């Protein structure tokens, strides 16, 4: 091969390699900019805190909450510490299958779980036949039902953060050694203004309140749907990483007072019209609308109603 062709080939290789390196550096810089967070800024205050001792049953409003890796806690009451399951299949049951579960009040005190079904009350259930039969009676079902109680040392390890394809950006991988009976992430936060904006679009007969969305942390101050662009939250010394939007299902259509689904499918029908996730995420979420944000704790501690809330913003939604 002549020196001329060798020189051309060498130049081609060097040029190609340089282009690849430049492209790699550009993409890395672009990704870094895409996921860059602002400094913390004051956005509002905690207006409500809720703990849901039994998955899909009523929450308990509290004034303060200890934030652990596995969820909120106040004394003996812990978030999603119990759940209802089908004894034959082992599958967990929620208000999707039994809407009336949402009307069951719960309380944990002196190591006793108390369930109140309107005028029926049962104390100290042992998570055996007694509670199963009681629930079957209230839910009017012949299915065999049991209640599971979370035990700390039993194996329940799982990733807190979902696949990267579920997000437009990237978040740090955090693995919890334990987890309660929580379907996605230990914490869900929603702004009051987000619910208010939804109600401004609904008819007077279809208006809803926070109970339809079951957040652990309610925040007053930010503009509607501010949750979409949160990267991190800080309340006192507690820090949260925002992992993914909360996508909504038929549970939002259940009246929390009666346990009856609304025939017109509101507010889910309206949310599907204006709160669908970006097209890139349709393969994951389908037509499920986003409303609120799931979070995990990166620094534990106690938060209280009235505490100031600080946020670090992403430069993109979701």
From TrEMBL:
Source organism per UniProt: Enterobius vermicularis (Human pinworm)
Taxonomic placement: Eukaryota, Metazoa, Ecdysozoa, Nematoda, Chromadorea
Membrane-spanning intervals of the chain: 6-26
Name of one Pfam family that matches: MOSC
GO molecular function terms attached to this record: catalytic activity; molybdenum ion binding; pyridoxal phosphate binding
Protein name, entry field: MOSC domain-containing protein
Domain MOSC positions: 159-312
Domain of life of the source: Eukaryota
PANTHER family membership: MITOCHONDRIAL AMIDOXIME REDUCING COMPONENT 1, MOLYBDOPTERIN COFACTOR SULFURASE MOSC
Keywords on record: Membrane, Transmembrane, Transmembrane helix
């Amino acid at each position: 091969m002549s020196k001329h062709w060798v020189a051309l080939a060498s130049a081609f290789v060097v040029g190609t390699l340089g282009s690849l390196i430049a492209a790699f550096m550009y993409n890395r810089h672009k990704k870094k900019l895409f996921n860059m967070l602002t400094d913390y800024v004051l956005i509002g205050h905690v207006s409500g805190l809720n703990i849901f001792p039994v998955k899909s049953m009523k929450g308990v409003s509290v004034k303060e909450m200890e934030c652990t890796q596995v969820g909120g806690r106040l004394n003996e009451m812990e978030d999603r510490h119990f759940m209802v399951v089908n004894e034959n299949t082992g599958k967990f049951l929620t208000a999707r299958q039994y809407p009336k579960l949402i009307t069951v009040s719960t309380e944990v005190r002196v190591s006793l779980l108390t369930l109140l079904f309107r005028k029926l009350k049962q104390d100290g259930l042992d998570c055996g036949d007694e509670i199963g039969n009681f629930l079957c009676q209230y839910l009017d079902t012949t299915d065999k039902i049991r209640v599971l109680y979370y035990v700390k040392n039993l194996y329940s390890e799982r990733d807190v953060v979902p696949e990267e394809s579920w997000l437009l950006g990237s978040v740090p991988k955090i693995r919890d050694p334990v987890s309660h009976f929580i379907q996605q992430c230990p914490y869900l936060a929603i702004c009051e203004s987000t619910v208010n904006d939804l109600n401004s679009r609904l008819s007077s007969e279809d208006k809803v309140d926070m109970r339809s969305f079951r957040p652990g942390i309610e925040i007053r101050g930010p503009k509607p749907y501010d949750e979409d662009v949160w990267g991190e939250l800080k309340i006192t010394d507690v820090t949260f990483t925002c992992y993914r939007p909360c996508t909504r299902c038929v549970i939002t259509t259940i009246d929390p007072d009666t346990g009856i689904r609304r025939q017109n499918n509101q507010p889910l029908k309206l949310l599907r019209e204006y709160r669908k996730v970006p097209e890139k995420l349709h393969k994951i979420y389908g037509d499920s609308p986003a409303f609120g944000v799931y979070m995990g704790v990166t620094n534990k501690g106690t938060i209280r109603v009235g505490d100031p809330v600080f946020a670090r913003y992403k430069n993109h939604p979701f």
